[in-house]
Amino acid sequence: MSVSDPDILDQARRAIASIASPDGAILGQSPCITGLSVNGGRISVSLQIAPGEHEAFMPVRDAIEAKLRQLEGVTSVFVVLTADSPAPAQKSTSMPPKLTAAPAKTKPLASVRHVVAVASGKGGVGKSTTTVNLALAFRALGWRVGVLDADIYGPSIPTLLGLTGKPTKGQGRSLLPMQAYGLKAMSMGVLVDPETAMVWRGPMIMSAITQLISDVAWGELDLLLVDMPPGTGDAQLALAQGTDLSGAIIVSTPQDLALVDARRGIAMFNKVNVTTLGIIENMSQFICPDCGSSHAIFGQGGAQAEAMRLGVPFLGALPLSMALRSASDAGRPILARDPDGPLGLLYQSMARTVMGALEHEAGPQVTVRH
Ligand SMILES: Nc1ncnc2c1ncn2[C@@H]1O[C@H](COP(=O)(O)OP(=O)(O)OP(=O)(O)O)[C@@H](O)[C@H]1O
């Protein structure tokens, strides 16, 4: 008989209560455990620590993981250490939040040449679909590529890449990335219950994601694409500020509203000195599958005009395509089947432009005008 989540939670509480924290107090009597939840056998634990205590708490984190993994019914354990004070909540209509003290950047992974964020000012513009197909385009051009799904609010990379099961443990405390269509992939969605993650504040998200970047045994990669949570609030800012990014790609639809959001995204990356490698206009026009006629349902060329205005490279426009949607939603990305088809070539041309910018170390300096 399988063990229920409430039973696992109960056992988990007892299992970690006796673990000693660095100051000698046991965790059962310490306020540092700020979150403990179980969903489908996946345990998430959050520990609030003081700045500078990270190293001292690593053995505690290892001990928690080791104890919880032994419990019956547990499929994965994810422990987050967070040392930052919460950033103020942001309304989606406001400009990017003001920077507080900059956290130390996550150490660049020696085996990963470039880490690039794929971001959007608002949700539902096709950021994850674009991330996956772009990753496959880079792969078709010969790069070794990983995809990290940091969109904890709506992790869709497992669906888009047809990932099933759980990641397996590598050496030490590392996790082996999952594999699909020649890409390495890891998603917060397979490790952390989205309901738990929903209540995380910016610094906790940042802490979880940077931990994920460094805990996964990515191996040698030319590029790690990070599918960011949509928006430009404190979580996104913390991520952009704390991850050692080579650059960012902004996905937008042509509508004015989405463009306003995309502009905020660029302003956010600009603020933390991350180069915007370019804007992609998604769902640019609808090509009728029956007659082949083209309709600009959301307008057209908005992102291109905006890119020009802001002095950011325009990477290209992707049509609103039923084939793209149905292939993505079925977990068989169109680029995996047909990398040299019309859509494949479009993605490849965008990937080539980004490759050029990355290999030459720099895009233009972006100045945002409002
Ligand atoms: N060019 C396109 N043509 C047709 N459908 C698309 C296109 N791009 C994305 N979609 C569809 O739009 C929906 C949303 O896409 P996706 O999940 O990639 O967006 P997102 O910006 O990552 O969303 P979220 O912000 O919720 O994470 C999906 O059903 C996807 O298949």
Protein architecture, described:
- With 370 residues, this protein is an alpha/beta fold.
- The protein has two domains: 5-82, Fe-S cluster assembly (FSCA) (GMP Synthetase, Chain A, domain 3, 2-Layer Sandwich); 112-359, 3-Layer(aba) Sandwich (Rossmann fold), CATH 3.40.50.300.
- Helix content is 35%, strand content 19%.
- The chain has helices spanning 5-17, 54-69, 127-140, 157-160, 194-198, 202-215, 234-242, 256-271, 302-310, 322-329, 334-337, 342-359, and strands at residues 33-39, 42-48, 76-82, 112-119, 145-149, 178-180, 183-187, 221-227, 247-252, 276-281, 286-287, 294-295, 314-317.
- The strands form three sheets. Strands 6-7-5-8-4-9-10-13 form an eight-stranded mixed beta sheet, with helices on both faces. A three-stranded mixed beta sheet has the order 1-2-3. Strands 11-12 form a two-stranded antiparallel ribbon.
- A hairpin with a 6-residue loop joins strand 11 and strand 12.
- The chain is elongated and about 65 Å long.
- The termini are far apart.
- Residues 85-104 and 362-370 have low confidence and may be disordered.
- Bound molecules: adenosine-5'-triphosphate.
- Residues 120, 123-129, 151, 154, 156, 230, 282-283, 318, 320-321, 324-325, 328-329 line the site of adenosine-5'-triphosphate.
